[in-house]
């Protein structure tokens, strides 16, 4: 439908331009004696030849020769066409002047050769305009196709990143549940039920480009509660999220990697620890902050393997470009991550 509208707009634009070009000479000369005859001889007939030259190049010669790098043939054909139309126009003009213009003014004015030189220049102008217009249209079309191809590539990459995130997320969740099976079967059942809710969100909500921030917060709370089931009371988890964020839309699954990372590095088997998550919305900017202790992991621990954060950084770059910041502070055995997204 858009293509049809564009074609109609182009046809209308061409029609309007030629109406103006044919009307102006007559309107500017109205009131003068023999105005119509002079306009016919000096304006309308040349304009018909201009149109033939313009559209001959626009529809045929430029595509077949110039854009296919047959430049010499293109130039030769245009020289021949311009020369023929100049000669024909000159013959028609001479004939009509003899028939329509009063005898007393014939033979006056500049020499005939001067008119031929002027005609050669003026008849070359439609060639230049047709090249300029056709080249501009081709450039615009090429740019549009490149943007479309780039958008498709980015969408494909985003989809790939999301699919990469899902098995990574479920792998870690299943690891957590597996660790609880022998110790607390009842908690394991509760964890599996919680995981089913998270899977439902993954399957049915995250196909959209953006989701309600409320839904994303519900997902994060469920995931945090699932993670808490694995740990004893030595791990204190605190979180504060906005209570009502229905009108705010955001790309899904942007914060889960930070939550995973906090649990991965912020829990020790021998020390008590606190993990905190905080989110607030200020002036259309969502700010998420996680803080935890930074306990070193053994080389055998492959939970996460760094996939989550790298995935997150790439997705943020593709989705929000220069509209986000992510700062990581490591000091005094604390690990603090602050992600701010300007919506």
TrEMBL record:
Looking up Gene3D superfamilies in the UniProt record yields: Histidine kinase-like ATPase, C-terminal domain (3.30.565.10)
> Which positions, given as ranges, span the membrane?
9-28, 40-59, 71-88, 114-133
What keywords are annotated for this sequence in UniProt?
Kinase, Membrane, Transferase, Transmembrane, Transmembrane helix
Q: Determine the domain of life of the protein's source.
A: Bacteria
Q: Which SUPFAM superfamilies match?
A: ATPase domain of HSP90 chaperone/DNA topoisomerase II/histidine kinase
List, for all copies, the residue spans of the domain called Signal transduction histidine kinase internal region.
156-234
Query: Example GO molecular function term?
Result: phosphorelay sensor kinase activity
Q: InterPro entries given for it?
A: Bact_2-comp_sensor_kinase (IPR050640), HATPase_C_sf (IPR036890), Sig_transdc_His_kin_internal (IPR010559)
Q: Which GO terms describe its cellular component?
A: membrane
- The identity of this protein, by name, is Histidine kinase
What is the organism field in this record?
Answer: Flavobacterium sediminis
């Amino acid at each position: 439908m858009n293509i049809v509208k564009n074609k109609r707009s182009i046809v209308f634009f061409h029609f309007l331009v030629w109406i103006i070009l044919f009307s102006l000479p007559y309107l500017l000369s109205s009131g003068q004696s023999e105005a119509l005859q002079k306009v016919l001889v000096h304006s309308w007939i040349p304009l018909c030849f201009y149109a033939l030259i313009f559209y001959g190049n626009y529809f045929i010669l430029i595509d077949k020769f110039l854009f296919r790098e047959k430049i010499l043939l293109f130039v030769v054909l245009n020289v021949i066409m311009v020369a023929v139309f100049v000669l024909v126009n000159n013959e028609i003009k001479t004939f009509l002047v003899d028939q329509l213009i009063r005898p007393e003014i014939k033979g006056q004015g500049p020499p005939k050769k001067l008119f031929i030189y002027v005609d050669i220049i003026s008849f070359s102008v439609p060639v230049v305009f047709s090249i300029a217009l056709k080249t501009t249209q081709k450039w615009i079309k090429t740019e549009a196709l490149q943007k479309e191809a780039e958008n498709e590539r980015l969408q494909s990459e985003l989809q790939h990143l999301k699919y990469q995130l899902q098995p990574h997320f479920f792998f870690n969740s299943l690891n957590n549940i597996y660790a609880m099976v022998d110790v607390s079967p009842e908690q394991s059942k509760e964890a599996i039920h919680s995981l089913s809710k998270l899977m439902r969100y993954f399957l049915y909500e995250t196909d959209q480009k953006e989701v309600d921030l409320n839904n994303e917060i519900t997902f994060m709370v469920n995931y945090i509660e699932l993670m808490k089931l694995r740990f004893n009371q030595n791990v204190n988890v605190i979180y504060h999220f906005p209570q009502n964020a229905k009108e705010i839309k955001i790309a899904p699954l942007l914060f889960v990697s930070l939550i995973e990372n906090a649990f991965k590095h912020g829990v020790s088997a021998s020390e008590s620890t606190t993990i905190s998550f905080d989110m607030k919305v200020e002036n259309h900017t969502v700010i998420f902050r996680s803080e935890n202790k930074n306990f070193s992991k053994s080389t055998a621990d492959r939970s996460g393997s760094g996939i989550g954060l790298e995935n997150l950084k790439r997705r943020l770059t593709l989705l929000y470009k220069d509209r986000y910041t992510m700062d990581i502070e490591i000091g005094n055995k604390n690990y603090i991550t602050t992600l701010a997204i300007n919506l």
